[in-house]
Design brief:
This protein is of the alpha+beta class. It folds into six domains: about 80 residues, 434 Repressor (Amino-terminal Domain) (Orthogonal Bundle), CATH 1.10.260; about 170 residues, P-loop containing nucleotide triphosphate hydrolases (Rossmann fold, 3-Layer(aba) Sandwich), CATH 3.40.50; about 70 residues, no CATH class; about 80 residues; about 100 residues, no CATH class; about 210 residues, Neuraminidase (6 Propeller). The strands form seven sheets. Strands 1-3-4-5-2-6 form a six-stranded parallel beta sheet, sandwiched between helices. The chain is globular.
């Protein structure tokens, strides 16, 4: 007969077989189990006979719990089954962001709406990436280079080649938050998990998956994207089935240490002739259309080649500069004479090339250059997926020099300037970040700095929201306003009134609002934000009345009467609190931890952010789940991981340039070891202390403390070295052999032995796992701490009958 063991479940058939085994082991009848689980008899019958192939998570929890088992490992098994069945198949059509598709529209060319028709060069980079895609190397790749080096064009080119079948998911990060990117990947991979669960879910895939994420540097929370999502997935010791292909500028590459770096500006990958060939192809092959003469089309001589070479010399390593100059040249009435006396060459900087191109484009458009710049300027400030036509026109009117309508925008796209913008599927954005920078700088030169521009945008957004007798109806606001008012208001310096508006907080899109909540300054804003943060994790963004009731309740309990008043004015029909008596409660945020009890936690600093590491018991007493959280945002950082210990203490330390979680606890001593010493029971424990990478869950090293569970651990500095103090506790089964506790110090860096005044401390070398000295104390150590006082390193150890203070020197 099959015995139930959820850890061995990998398929739906195995899940069904083991659920039947649970049923048989408990000698259940269908009706008795249905009653105990609060399920219908038909539901239980369908699980047992296989009609229900994979039960819903809640149904599974009730079924297993009624059978007297912990539901957690069974839910983990269900998740494995769902991942295996929904993971992308190798060779399937990739899930590609719409934005990539615009790079290779065969009907477009530079200057007339084109971007990638004349892709040339980069042969070595393409060959290297193609070999990697076709091979089985587990190493991830990051493609980098300066602005305009063609990173996105190269990656998009890969999607047009046969090797695209090895790229399963392709995401363009421009304007997307890390949460949105995580949800997009989760949906494309068929995982159905939350952003916090995604790294662990991806690492658990059992089929090869390659994910492309481009324009990482253009994500609004790019650091969080790298640290929370990308970094945990590029650990070289992670699963070989998962590979990432990344595109970003150089300033983020140092965080992507687990990737092979391909720098497009490196001489090994760059050939000046590539830019010359690209410009020449644009000049020779772009067909004339109304408003675009292109004197180079069909030219019989070598002028296009000579001009292309001259452009290449000015462009340096920037394909963008070459493209912009080419766009200007094909819009002229005659070819340029590069041999003429006084000819001063082509622009060599992106800003100058951009100005030349916009002026040229403006000359061939009915409205002129100013008209063109006015229409493009709002997109330079657009967030997320960009602007729809109505909002775009309103912002162009406010930021520009005339009144504009949607008809102007259609004219802009139809008259040859469509290559300057791209459609994301729900809005319009500029084709390149360099154009946004240029337009913002241009606006600043005429006196409208960034803060004033964002203030104007904020006012237009507020004006777009419907109003009623209660004021602004934020729940009826256009999507862009609900998502991005907070971001624009923050950059304008006018965020506080919005944070004080309880109805705005409830209606705003949470992923875009969260990064700005800590900026609340006034007492009214802080009160509203504190109430909102207490309930944000349970809010349903589609249920206005329910959200209002939740906020009214928590505000009433906290005595936030102004917040209650705001809710009552907008929603007088919901719950009403006549009076309340409630214990005062400090403002806090609830981390979305599991229901398992937290046995240890510690705070620290990791890659510029404050973090908290939490450890919770699992269904197995000697397994613990470790999670790392951003202390400011409350978001999980990296994947959760399991350590084989009953964890009793954790601390965060820095050693050899990296941050580690030092985790201490106990686990059973193998019976064949302690029974050879003296008879005992299966409850005999030993201590273990180890270091894990909190970002990846990778184990760095572990040491046994034979005969004693470890109760406490603390990290600090001593004479420039990282040290860890460890305190051991009682082992009831082995007390007759060892009747003392121990405190130990490890030198994390090199184990150099300090001079110790107290004989109750021992020194451990954590790198070499060598115990350098061991001293006994008379009673078990329950807590330890380390710090500095009067220039000396002080260790404090608390035992069952005293607190000892020791100095290291």
């Amino acid at each position: 007969m099959v015995r139930s063991d959820p850890t061995k479940i990998r398929t739906a058939e195995e899940l069904h077989e083991q659920l039947r085994a649970l049923f048989v082991e408990g000698s259940w009848s269908i009706h008795r189990l249905a009653a105990a689980a609060e399920l219908g008899s038909a539901t239980v019958q369908a699980i047992l006979d296989g009609t229900t192939r994979v039960p819903q998570a809640r149904t599974l929890q009730r079924f297993v719990k009624a059978c007297g088992r912990n539901p957690a490992p069974w839910c983990d098994a269900r998740a494995r089954v769902m991942r295996a069945e929904k993971a992308p198949e190798q060779g399937s059509t990739p899930a590609v962001d719409r934005e990539f598709q615009s790079y290779f529209d065969p009907h477009k060319a530079a200057g007339s709406g084109g971007r990638g028709r004349y892709f040339t060069g980069r042969l070595r980079a393409l060959a290297e990436l193609t070999r990697w895609l076709d091979g089985d190397s587990p190493m991830s790749y990051v493609v980098t280079g300066g602005p305009g080096s063609g990173k996105s064009t190269l990656l998009a080119r890969l999607l047009a080649l046969p090797s695209r079948e090895r790229i399963h998911i392709a995401v363009h990060a421009r304007g997307k938050t890390s949460e949105q990117i995580a949800r997009q990947i989760s949906e494309a991979a068929g995982l159905g998990c939350t952003p916090e669960e995604l790294p662990a879910a991806l690492c658990g895939l059992e089929r090869p998956v390659t994910i492309m994420i481009d324009a990482i540097d253009e994500a609004p929370d790019r650091d969080r994207l790298v640290l929370d999502l990308v970094h945990p997935l590029i650990d070289p010791s992670g699963p070989r089935e998962l590979r990432l292909l990344l595109g970003t500028r150089r300033d983020l590459v140092h965080l992507l240490t687990g990737c092979h770096r391909l720098d497009l500006d490196d001489p090994d990958y760059f050939d000046q002739a590539d830019i010359s060939a690209f410009v020449t192809a644009t000049l020779r092959q772009t067909e004339p259309v109304p408003g675009l003469t292109n004197p180079y089309f069909g030219h019989p001589g070598d002028v296009p080649e000579r001009v292309g070479a001259a452009v290449s010399r000015s462009a340096g390593t920037s394909f963008l500069i070459g493209r912009l100059i080419a766009g200007d040249l094909i819009s002229r009435d005659s070819v340029v004479d590069i041999d003429a006396a006084g000819w001063d060459g082509f622009p060599s900087r992106v800003g100058d090339a951009m100005r030349l191109y916009l002026d040229s484009a403006g000359r061939r458009l009915p409205g002129g250059a100013r008209w063109l710049r006015d229409l493009l300027t709002p997109l330079a400030y657009a967030e997320g997926d960009g602007l729809d036509d109505d909002l775009w026109a309103d912002l162009a009117t406010r930021l520009g020099t005339a009144t504009y309508r949607a008809t102007d925008l259609r004219l802009l796209r139809d008259m040859g300037a469509g290559d300057l913008v791209s459609y994301t599927g729900s809005g319009w954005r500029l084709f390149h970040q360099a154009l946004a920078v240029h337009l913002r700088d241009d606006l600043a030169r005429i006196g409208l700095d960034s803060a004033r521009a964002h203030r104007a945008i904020t006012e237009v957004l507020v004006a777009s929201v419907p109003t009623d007798e209660h004021g602004i109806a934020w729940w009826r606001a256009p999507h862009y306003a609900r998502a991005h008012v907070a971001g624009h208001a923050a950059q304008a310096g006018v965020l506080d009134p919005f944070l004080a508006d309880a109805m705005f907080l409830l209606a705003a899109e949470r992923s875009w609002l969260a990064p700005h909540l800590h900026q609340a300054r006034s007492s009214a804003a802080r009160a509203a934000v504190e109430c909102y943060q207490l309930i944000q994790h349970v809010l349903d963004p589609t249920q206005e009345q329910q959200a209002a009731d939740c906020l009214r309740t928590i505000a009433g309990l906290r005595g936030a009467h102004e917040v209650v008043g705001q809710v009552n004015r907008r929603h007088p029909e919901g719950w009403e609190i006549a009076w309340s008596t409630w214990s005062p409660e400090s403002a806090h945020r609830t981390l979305p931890h599991t229901a398992a009890p937290v046995s240890a936690l510690a705070v620290g600093r990791l890659q510029g952010r404050e973090i908290v590491v939490t450890v919770a018991r699992t269904h197995d007493d000697y397994l613990s789940t470790v999670r790392t959280w951003d202390l400011v945002t409350g978001q999980e950082v990296g994947p959760a991981f399991t350590v084989p210990l009953e964890v009793r203490s954790v601390t965060v330390a820095r050693t050899q340039g990296r941050v580690v979680a030092v985790i201490a606890g106990a686990r059973p001593i193998p019976a064949y070891e302690w029974r050879s010493l003296e008879e005992g029971t299966d409850d005999a424990l030993e201590g273990q202390v180890g270091c894990w990478d909190p970002m990846t869950g990778g184990e760095i090293g572990r040491r046994r403390v034979y005969g004693r569970p470890v109760n406490a651990v603390a990290a600090g500095m001593h004479q420039g070295h990282s040290v860890v103090v460890v305190g051991t506790g009682p082992n009831d089964e082995l007390d007759r052999m060892y009747d003392d506790g121990e405190s130990d110090i490890w030198d994390i860096d090199d184990g150099a032995e300090p001079t110790l005044r107290s004989s109750e401390i021992s020194v451990w070398d954590l790198d070499d796992e060598v115990e350098l000295r061991n001293h006994e104390v008379m009673s078990p150590v329950r807590a330890v701490a380390i710090g500095q006082a009067d220039g000396q390193t002080i260790v404090v150890a608390g035992t069952t009958d005293l607190v000892g203070v020791m100095s290291l020197r």
